[in-house]
Amino acid sequence: MLQAQQRAVAHGRRPFSTGRRAVLARAAAPVASQAPTCVPVQFHQEKLAGLVNEQQFKAVIKGLVASGKMPSYLEPAWEYFYDHYKSAVVNSGVPGADEKLVTQVQASILDNVLLQAVQPYTFPSFHTRITEPYNYYDFGQRYVGTLIDFKNSVLGHRERWDRVQELLSQKHNVVLLANHQTEADPGVFAHMLASTHPQLATDVIYVAGDRVVTDPMCKPFSMGRNLFCVHSKKHMDDVPELKAAKMETNRKTLVAMQRQLNAGGTLIWIAPSGGRDRPNADGVWSPDTFDPAAVELMRNLLQRAKQPGHLIPMSMYSFPLMPPPKTVDKSIGERRLTAFTGVGISLCEELDIPSIISGSEEKEVQQRALATAAHSAVTESYRQLETAITDPAFRASRPEFSQPWLQAA
């Protein structure tokens, strides 16, 4: 067993106190995951809490379109999302992964998207995850967890994660320079560390770009994560008249980041590529090239902080779970294709910055060398991680890859 099945909580609803509307909790169908063993599905709207099958859910979507509360083009898009998610979950073979669970999870997503339409949340430069009265962290973990094949997922170099936890406890700062593959990456990261390093899973701060805090489908999931909100160079000029405001937001975020690093004990996750990986012409996935300016920014922030800091590359394999569009699209509202799959993360050795930049006195040359070293480490780690996930024999022969959630079950 991956882990003991979630046991159903008491039947019916439990109201949560909130300043503007009630938050309802419904018992979810049991599902094997390494999420909390007994977490009810929460709802803002009672009528959505009662949906338990596909027919009921799609009827609600049609009703929202008919009443003008949802644009008509979203009906086929959401049906596509529901159908692929249902196929992935129901065919996973996980006990309790049935149509009721699928519908409850999809209804909870719809519930949050609708709430954002009438009560939109604006992300500050530094956003702290929201867990009360509505637990957005559990909301995200539940959805991602139903798509993870824990039997074929791995955590790479557990001892290095132990070291990160130790450094943070000593008030050191750690920046993870990672590749990025799907919208679900924060959930994957948290699930991979939840059984061994729960504090890393919950306390990490993600450097988040435009889509994460503006796409209506992404926003509720983002509200459950700690975020430093920035506008990436890839999308800085998408709307020219907003460029100045975006640059000001980035300035405020840098101030917030420096403040946190000065306090110490801060773990930051950043994708120096500025976006998600994409497959090459042959369909092969690899970590996208790192932007030297992004790596240098993090090195500079660590160097200026009042506490010691460490730059550590990290690889992530997650693209089959929710692959991004093959091309970078500036528009909001992409189709969501999902699959039940193995995933994983693996930590590399800390970058030896003095050694890496010692070959030149030119600043730009040093920056390129540091970004190249980080990207090379992530790429090599990624290849090993991918093989460990897709090849059980290789995984069994390599002690650096573990599955602690299986041992804890």
TrEMBL record:
<keyword id="KW-1208">Phospholipid metabolism</keyword>
<dbReference type="InterPro" id="IPR023083">
    <property type="entry name" value="G3P_O-acylTrfase_N"/>
</dbReference>
<keyword id="KW-0594">Phospholipid biosynthesis</keyword>
<keyword id="KW-0809">Transit peptide</keyword>
<keyword id="KW-0150">Chloroplast</keyword>
<keyword id="KW-0443">Lipid metabolism</keyword>
<dbReference type="GO" id="GO:0004366">
    <property type="term" value="F:glycerol-3-phosphate O-acyltransferase activity"/>
</dbReference>
<comment type="pathway">
    <text>Lipid metabolism.</text>
</comment>
<protein>
    <recommendedName>
        <fullName>Glycerol-3-phosphate acyltransferase, chloroplastic</fullName>
        <ecNumber>2.3.1.15</ecNumber>
    </recommendedName>
</protein>
<feature type="short sequence motif" description="HXXXXD motif">
    <location>
        <begin position="180"/>
        <end position="185"/>
    </location>
</feature>
<comment type="function">
    <text>Esterifies acyl-group from acyl-ACP to the sn-1 position of glycerol-3-phosphate. The enzyme from chilling-resistant plants discriminates against non-fluid palmitic acid and selects oleic acid whereas the enzyme from sensitive plants accepts both fatty acids.</text>
</comment>
<dbReference type="Pfam" id="PF14829">
    <property type="entry name" value="GPAT_N"/>
</dbReference>
<dbReference type="InterPro" id="IPR038114">
    <property type="entry name" value="GPAT_N_sf"/>
</dbReference>
<keyword id="KW-0444">Lipid biosynthesis</keyword>
<feature type="domain" description="Phospholipid/glycerol acyltransferase">
    <location>
        <begin position="174"/>
        <end position="319"/>
    </location>
</feature>
<keyword id="KW-0934">Plastid</keyword>
<dbReference type="GO" id="GO:0006655">
    <property type="term" value="P:phosphatidylglycerol biosynthetic process"/>
</dbReference>
<comment type="similarity">
    <text>Belongs to the GPAT/DAPAT family.</text>
</comment>
<keyword id="KW-0012">Acyltransferase</keyword>
<dbReference type="InterPro" id="IPR002123">
    <property type="entry name" value="Plipid/glycerol_acylTrfase"/>
</dbReference>
<comment type="pathway">
    <text>Phospholipid metabolism; CDP-diacylglycerol biosynthesis; CDP-diacylglycerol from sn-glycerol 3-phosphate: step 1/3.</text>
</comment>
<dbReference type="GO" id="GO:0009570">
    <property type="term" value="C:chloroplast stroma"/>
</dbReference>
<dbReference type="InterPro" id="IPR016222">
    <property type="entry name" value="G3P_O-acylTrfase_chlp"/>
</dbReference>
<keyword id="KW-0808">Transferase</keyword>
<dbReference type="Pfam" id="PF01553">
    <property type="entry name" value="Acyltransferase"/>
</dbReference>
